[in-house]
Description:
Layout: E1 5-6, H1 16-24, H2 44-61, E2 67-72, H3 75-87, E3 93-98, H4 101-110, E4 115-121, E5 145-148, E6 150-151, E7 156-157, E8 169-172, E9 189-193, E10 204-209, H5 226-231, H6 241-256, H7 259-279, E11 284-285, E12 297-302, H8 308-317, E13 320-321, E14 332-335, H9 342-358
Parallel strand pairs: 1-13, 3-4, 3-5, 5-8, 8-9
Antiparallel strand pairs: 2-10, 6-7, 9-10, 11-12, 12-14
Helix pairs in contact: 1-6, 2-6, 3-4, 7-9
The structure holds pyridoxal-5'-phosphate.
Amino acid sequence: MSRIFNFSAGPSSLPEVVLEQAKNELLDWRGSGMSVMEMSHRGKQFSSIAEELEADLRALMRIPENYRVLFLQGGASAQFSFIPQNLLGDKTKACYVKTGAWSEKTIKDAKPYCDAIVSASSESSHFTTIPDVSSWEIDTDAAYLHYTSNETIHGVEFNVTPDSKGLPLVCDMSSNILSRPVDVNEFGLIYAGSQKNMGAAGVTVVIVREDLLGKCSKIVPPVFNYAEQAKNQSMLNTPTTYSWYLMGLVLKWVQAQGGVSAMEQRNIAKAAKLYQAIDTSDLYHNPVDLAFRSRMNVPFILADESLDKAFLTAAEAAGLNELKGHRSVGGMRASIYNAMPESGVDALISFMQEFERTR
Ligand SMILES: *Cc1c(COP(=O)(O)O)cnc(C)c1O
């Protein structure tokens, strides 16, 4: 068996020990005589997996009692449409901050349901920065303020939690959840798909403050009505059981690493190394404002675009995969989520330096 370093933006690398454990438990989960895939979601074995999953996420993120934790389907993308429908209530407006491709899509998907006000945008800088929070135009009549804490495609990340001027703060944390501590109390709702920092694809975590529940539009399918799912422990219908189990294993792994603060220290070290290698080279370039460079997704372009193909081919031959940048940005992108070991970043840096030297 030979495993590559996988720099994919998602689905992405998983900790090898998690995969080993899943393999060991595949046919017989802890003496149950069956695979987690074969268990009834209402049975006592799977119930224990589900309860531990929620308890572990609550512990890792220090989620307060007055927040409900939901595990839904449809990806983060489904929430782009269901957040306005769940949270608007009597209001007709919601504020959005546009800092890259994902927040742009969030705004587009909200428009059928509300007046989606763009409070700030960094589009004119080609999404290489985050507009100063003091310049944001926040309408206090809006139902909430939405932002994307890490722009997976543009490699731009918030370095603080913004002040929402009293509006419930809603955040898409799909690509940086569990990579740094956040104070959940500052948020009305946090959501994130599982396939970047939390496991395999198939689960969307929604952490929502209780007082925001109960305003859902009647046309929303019950499985996407947060209050209904909260009442039913996210089991209004059959959940993606195996993805829940894998997320549980990843959360245990994060705990074993020392929790979210320890992950943050590792992520700071990994990202700093990679950006330093980019900044000190003549071949590679990252256009993002220093203060807002993502620790999770590191886009970089080659000074000579005609070398892109050779770079990717040689990288793959060296066991460094999925480095091609998103088509909208071009160049390369290295996604270095929690599960990417420092040795993977070191191998990438050595490869980049060797490629520059011998091109
Ligand atoms: C990947 C991603 C999404 C979309 O996730 P899906 O599971 O494909 O719906 C949304 N937002 C951000 C920030 C992402 O990185």
